[in-house]
Predict the 3D structure of the following.
Amino acid sequence: MQTLSWSTGMLLLVAACPSAAAEQCTARSGAETMPLVELYTAEGCNTCPPADRWMSKRITDTETNWLAFHVDYWDKEGWVDRFASPLNTQRQRARVILAEGKDAIYTPQVMVGMKVQAPWREDGRFNRVLKEARQPAPVALALQAQPQGKSWNVRIDATRAAGVAAVPAELWLTQYIDDQTTRPRAGENRGVTLHHDRVVHKVWGPWKVGNDALSKSVAVEAETSPWGMTAFVQDARGNTLQSISLPATACAAASTASR
């Protein structure tokens, strides 16, 4: 389900506040923009599994954030993707129209900022795209997550960098899940075992980012699968101004171990 309308440096990830009633985890962005890679994929598409495997291998790169948006237009081909959402399809279409002025979407499609045709099959070219995306960040982000029973209270803060002129931008918060396996019983991938990571499970926003600091808090239901949170700010053209992730499962484990 989804709820939405429509640094090169390492993140600081800590289990902190041992005197608090419940420990909390925090991540803060660095001085450079951390690239956000968006994969648009579907379980009903037989050319998508290689891209899914590619993302699963690449998520070990912690200087980049990774999200897989499952789209729903393949559902009519005989297999309904349990992760698909029409809102993901709307997002994919809007991103392409903004960048290219035309409605031409497909799967698998990989986007990095305004580069909606990112060359994910060619490591050298793709790594150059990531390098170009790492610019001085005009926005700083901080994520804080604190378990409260079966749910978590997640707070996201966005602050404009000093001396940077404000441009129209929006803040998004996503919950992702890892280590998902499906064996479709129909469609183009019938009988094939599929593996997914960084699957976008829920989305909050967008919230307008202006000159003033912005803070939002949401209640997030904990998942039994490995999961985490990724927040990002994009401008009106689709450029990523900053992104940040917090692996909640690892954070919770560290908090438990420290007690």
About this structure: Residues 14-257 form one domain. Residues 1-22 have pLDDT under 50 and may be disordered. Residues 6 and 87 are 6 Å apart (CA to CA).
